[in-house]
Amino acid sequence: MYCEKNKLEFDPNQFNFQPTKTNTRFEEKSECHNETSSDSVDEASFVNDIFQNEIYMTEIPKTFKETQISPDKEKWDKAMSEEIKLMQNRKVWDLVEPKSNMKVLDCRWVYNIKYDEKNNVKKYKSRLVAQGFKQRPGVDFTDVFAPLVNFDIIKFLFVLLVCILGWNHCQIDVKGAYLYGNRDIPIYMQQPEGFVVKGCEHYVCRLQKSIYGLHQSGRQFNIELNEILFGLGFHQNELCNGLYTKSNCILLVYVDDIVVFSKSQSDLEDSILNIKIKLEITELGPVGYLV
Q: Can you give the residue ranges of the Reverse transcriptase Ty1/copia-type domain (predicted)?
């Protein structure tokens, strides 16, 4: 309506705000940003992907044992090995002998298949998740809130910055985002099924990073992300969660996804390059549609 009133040209095919069958990282969910942690939202996104796989009639293993009898065993094994390698590179845990007074959490594998825009299989994914529901409030975690940008703000800035002002934009994904968050409270976890270290079978994982599934993981990643962005010269907007600004650049953060807006292509590329120095990211290109 704004464009019509002010006689501004706008190609409705440029951005599709209608639901689609394909997966998108920016999905509108029922949000209560002041009451919901980004950890639960991220897990909901992962569960939503699994639900879509059920629609596509794809068999998704529910347990490690099921992957070992699956026709796609090699693909699932590769996905799990990649996850373990990522955790080793990030130094997510070290092994220690258990003590009688230790509270040791269980963990499990969660599996998923990612599709491209044409619903072709893109990647087999495995995620190691701690069973955080066994954490004790006030003992194993305290603060859990992590701010998320409101989806209406995302849509508004697309109309204002891209459609009206013609700014450049790009979407990036932070790989293993929560694994950047530092542990705030001592937490111990069982070794992952299928990857128990020989000779150390009775040892447990002493977490150094905030693995997926913990109540505080989203908050710990957000703290780390804030420090990184502040170090790059960005300023956090006090009135809008997940919005950061720097001269002619604006960032929107939604869990592990970041949309970068910039007045010029060179500034856009410079901003992404600076973030890439600090974080392992995947550039997804311009955002073509939102749901």
A: 91-287
pLDDT digits (tens, 9 = 90+) for 266-290: 999 999 999 999 999 999 999 876 5
Expressed in angstroms, the distance from the first to the final Cα of the chain is 19
Q: Quote the pTM value.
A: 0.77
Which burial class, exposed, middle or buried, applies to 188 when counting CB atoms under 10 A from its CB (0-12, 13-18, 19+)?
A: middle
Helix (H) or strand (E) holding 94: strand 93-96
* Rounded Cα distance, 130 and 211, in Å: 7
Q: How far is CA 190 from the centre of its chain?
A: 23
Q: Model confidence over 253-271: pLDDT tens digits?
A: 999 999 999 999 999 999 9
Sign of the alpha-carbon dihedral angle for 117, 118, 122, 126 = positive
